[in-house]
Specification:
The protein is mainly β and about 400 residues long. It has two helices and 20 strands. The N terminus is likely disordered.
Length: about 400
């Protein structure tokens, strides 16, 4: 943590110096007319560069307020510094580049390296990537920057079924081909992966995000079997983008010093994502995921071996004009529909449905004085049912906040 705080202090001083002599700095905003896919999000960010130095800096910040009521009980109004994320990129040489992403969550409660990889470009369709890699499962995991979204909370399914900003150390290849109105891309990686915390955790349910608390995955594999992640995406300029992805591997320690402890137990996730514009105005963005976990027979039925969920965002601009002196301002109305089922199946004894699910509806409005800055107001309503199907626990409340690149 000490080193990370030193880095943050150095960058803030760097920013202060930029205010003194801004002529030394320039925004790196390349005019690229090629089709952008979700996989391009890692580099498709604003950066600040000093003269001709091949290193560029950037980042984004998120803060918000919450007032939530659950079954008539509230803890009142609170404020939250969600995250501060710093980017550093460098062109090491022709067709060799490096990018890192360091995130501070809830002040400095969590400090994570979400991405730190070198790309070596051999051919547009064959490129090597190695380091700390963001596993490309679904679309949100790669394209998660707060300023790109009209909603304060991240999608439920993309944070509780797919571990949000799930990254690991590994290597792989990726490629992209564009022609006219079409673009095709793929990614294939081998990385360290999950551990048995996905069924041994404080949630007392199958919970894939629990593996994020294991820092040793950046040092070694839990069981010596790599996690495989594959994704392909296709986009048409006038239709939209669709992506298919799979991530899977062994999560348990099945052998120790030659002694067999258990059979190899797998975890597999499949996801489909899409986004499109209707009449060049209304934006639709959605994702659906299935998770399959080989849970030991000795575990109770509250640990599900199948999960599913997804979200759909609908964003419509109602004003595009100069507002309060901001020349490119946009006022949006938005709606998010969410669902996650953490235990798909039936009880062995009664053949009745196992529940443990959550539904959510989130309407909101957002104001973008500049494309890279958003001020958001959301009303969140969700109802969650326990494993036995008892009357749902209902939560509702207001959120207000902002997010901006810098």
């Amino acid at each position: 943590m000490k080193q990370a705080l030193i880095l943050f202090f150095a960058l803030t001083q760097y920013s202060a110096f930029a205010q003194i002599d801004s002529t030394l700095f320039k925004r790196v905003e390349k005019k690229d007319t090629t089709l952008k896919l979700n996989m391009d999000a890692v580099y498709n960010r604003p950066f600040l560069q000093v003269g001709k130095v091949p290193v560029a800096f950037g980042g984004y910040v998120e803060a918000n307020s919450n007032y939530m009521v659950t079954d008539g009980v509230t803890e009142g109004l609170s404020f939250q510094m969600r995250r501060l994320t710093l980017f550093v990129s460098s062109s090491i040489g022709r067709r060799i580049k490096f990018l890192s992403e360091l995130e501070f969550e809830d002040g400095t409660k969590e400090i994570n390296i979400e991405f730190a990889a070198v790309d070596i470009e051999f051919h547009p369709l064959v490129n090597l990537r190695g380091g700390v890699i963001m596993n490309p499962i679904g679309a949100f995991n790669q394209n998660h920057d707060g300023p790109k979204w009209e909603f304060i909370d991240r999608p439920i399914s993309a944070t509780t079924i797919i571990p949000s900003t799930w990254s690991n150390v590994g290597f792989g290849i990726w490629g992209k081909y564009s022609k006219n109105n079409w673009a095709f891309a793929y990614e294939a990686y081998l990385t360290n992966g999950f551990d048995d915390r996905i069924i041994n955790n404080a949630e007392n349910r199958t919970w894939l995000p629990a593996s994020k608390t294991n820092p040793e995955r950046f040092e070694e594999s839990f069981n010596g079997v790599p996690l495989t992640t594959l994704k392909s995406a296709l986009k048409h300029r006038k239709i939209g983008e669709i992506g298919l992805s799979w991530m899977g591997g062994v999560y348990n320690k099945f052998e120790e010093d030659g002694l067999v402890l258990d059979k190899r137990r797998r975890v597999d996730l499949f996801a489909i994502d899409f986004n499109t514009f209707v009449k060049k105005k209304t934006y639709f963005n959605g994702e659906w995921v299935w998770a399959f976990v080989d849970v030991p027979e000795t575990f109770s039925q509250q640990f599900g071996n199948k999960q599913k969920g997804g979200f759909l965002d609908i964003v419509h601009p109602v004003l595009r004009r100069t507002i309060l002196g901001f020349e490119r301002a946009v006022l949006n109305v938005a709606l998010r529909l969410e669902y996650a089922d953490y235990n798909v199946g039936t009880f062995r004894e009664t053949d009745g449905d196992i529940r443990d699910d959550i539904y959510a509806v989130v309407p909101g409005i957002s104001f973008r004085p500049y494309p890279q800055t958003v001020i958001r107001a959301n009303y969140r309503y969700h109802w969650q049912t326990d494993i036995l199907g008892n009357p749902a626990s209902k939560t509702a409340g207001f959120q207000f906040g902002f997010s901006s690149y810098f």
